[in-house]
Here is the input.
Amino acid sequence: MTQTEPQTEILAPVQRADRVLSLDVVRGLAVLGILAVNAMTFFWPHEVGMNPAIQPGWDADALLGWQIQDVFFRDKMRTLFSLLFGVSIFLVGGLRTDLDRGRLLRSRLFWLAVFGLIHGAAFWFGDILFLYALTGFIVMLVRSWSARRLLIVGTVLYLILCALYVGMMWSMTLMPPDQLQASIAEQGGHMTPEQLAAAIQAMTGDAWSVTVHQFQQWLAVVPIIAVAMIPVTASLMMIGMGLFKAGFLAGRSPTWLYFASILLAAGCLYLIWGESSAIAASGFDFIQAMTRPHATFLVPLVSLGYASVLILMVRFGMSLILYPLISVGRMAFTNYLTQTLIMTTLAYGGRGLGWYGEIGWPEMWGIIAVVWILQLLWSPMWLAFFRMGPIEWIWRSLTYGRLLPLSREAAA
Here is the structure.
């Protein structure tokens, strides 16, 4: 009965001085980069992601804008987030023998799921928070594993899932032509101009109709995410947890290993760029665009290369230069949801400016850049006065079951 009282006082959010800079700065890159990935789905139907050439006004500038996103951001940022979320499961929950921290972790994941449900149902169908919460309840069961075991199991699982996906997409080429076309259409690979116009109209009407249509999109996506995304996300979370325990994501690995990771990532990006160019040259052939063996298998290596650049910058004493990015990472939850608020306000009809279906890639990159600048400015300004971001404060207060101090002047 007396054993739990001291633990209640000890369990508290990590203080600023105890935070791992390498994790914060990599998280900052991930949350900014994820906007470049998500921007298209804020302004266009998801089918446009499979064939961006169906956008009106598609030209060489649009192609370049798409390819920069496709090669340098697509999947790489989600992978970084997944790796880092695996780390957070261990940092919050500790070993499975620590029952108090285990309860804290379950509370944290529960409230994240609630945030995800609200975010996905009411604001944007592409929410990733609910997926992470569900996956977290699975991965938390292996948080006591050694780094070696986590890395082996996570890597093998990831490779198996990638092989299954690539094999499944390639096997579509063996279908009879009529059946193949029907399957492509079912997966959203074909969209006529009339269908595109109807999809745009659905998101540019009055506020109620737009909200209902967005909710319907979210309902359709949730089962797909549960089946297709939880296993691969779990594998990446295990790899991230293993890399942290091994010292890599904590910034404790040898310098040469980070340089090797950067060189390996550069080679992977070269291969992915060639693959992306071939897809564009094919007119975005559905099978070729969806199979993508280089991008499918090599994405984690690119993500770790990005992380290595930032970790080395921290190691070489460049934390002051990186402070805005570190601040963005410390407020990642707030910044992620703020991106949704900004983009849906610009895109949706009725409840926003109604730019849905009107923004091409060059203009989209301008919007992305403005949001990046705003978040790099307001994050350090906020943290100059407060301990954490406003959404982080709500989440952590709910997790701990008490109001936590927010002002930096407040007593700890």
Notes: Residues 1-9 have pLDDT under 50 and may be disordered.
